[in-house]
Design goal:
This protein has helices at 9-18, 25-34, 53-62, 86-93, 121-132, 149-153, 164-172, 176-191, 207-213, 224-233, 235-246; strands spanning 3-7, 39-42, 68-73, 97-100, 136-141, 158-162, 195-199, 219-222. An eight-stranded parallel β-barrel has the order 1-2-3-4-5-6-7-8, surrounded by six helices. It has one domain: Alpha-Beta Barrel (TIM Barrel). It has 248 residues and is α/β, with parallel strands linked by helices. It is built from eleven helices and eight strands.
Length: 248
């Protein structure tokens, strides 16, 4: 069984494009939970282009105990006006999981994982800080990356495989190599005792093939495709269809 965590960032993008309060990411999260989603994901960025600190607080206050809250973000990004920093957000919202994603302000979306090369002492300190406040820590990693020993040594609990390359290859009809890369990362992580999550551009069209090719995935975080599909089919119906694929 794979837990489905719905990323509601795109609801905030739509709201912010107009201003005001509608549509509400918190209301969307409630609807997803009512439809059976087992988790809710948000990715607040320092530039506040979509999910804000206020959204994080409102969603955290709404979620029932059985639903996991996952906050994605860049632990290396400093606080600024309107953004207290990832650690402060996590300390306040108390999510079950924090996923470290090394994105910058200029990125439209996350497009690469954390490298295991170079001086990792700062990363180790950040992992320790989030573990100290009770968060499970997952690290966003590139497909095909197998050098994960340091991440485990520093106390990380899971990795999240960046599935964008797989989704692109699947769309072209040539996904075997990209799927094998994801599977090799998952196997390396599992051999070290790290749990495996996955996310980015997964959809109803490619998710079943991904899960069949990468055994043991604990959680998928899906936002862009799910929200796009929900615009046509409805949010509750779309969540139900994803749960039928993941089984969780």
């Amino acid at each position: 069984m794979t837990l489905l965590s719905v990323n509601v960032n795109k609801i905030a993008v739509l709201r912010n494009s107009r201003g005001g309060l509608l549509p509400s990411p918190a209301a969307a999260a409630r609807l997803c939970v009512a439809a059976g989603a087992r988790g809710i994901t948000v990715h607040p960025r320092p530039d506040q282009r979509h999910i804000t600190a206020e959204d994080v607080a409102e969603i955290a206050a709404d979620l029932p105990a059985h639903v996991e809250f996952n906050i994605e973000g860049n632990p290396f990004a400093p606080a600024r006006a309107g953004y207290p920093g990832l650690l402060a957000l996590a300390a306040s919202a108390k999510p079950a999981q924090v996923t470290f994603v090394p994105d910058g302000d200029g990125q439209i979306t996350s497009d690469h994982g954390i490298s295991p090369e170079g001086d990792l002492s700062v990363l180790a300190a950040h992992i320790g800080a989030f573990k100290a406040i009770g968060c499970r820590v997952s690290l966003f990693v590139d497909p095909g990356e197998t050098r994960l020993e340091a991440f485990r040594q520093f106390g990380a609990d899971r990795v999240e495989i960046y599935t964008g390359p797989f989704a692109e290859a699947f769309e072209r009809g040539d996904a075997a190599e990209a799927l094998a890369d994801c599977a090799s990362t998952a196997a390396a992580a599992q051999a070290l005792g790290l749990g495996v999550n996955a996310g980015h551009d997964l959809s109803q069209g490619n998710l079943k093939a991904f899960l069949a090719g990468v055994p043991g995935v604990l959680e998928v975080s899906i936002g862009h495709a799910l929200i796009a599909e929900a615009l046509i089919d409805g949010l509750a119906e779309t969540v139900s269809r994803y749960r039928a694929i993941t089984g969780g």
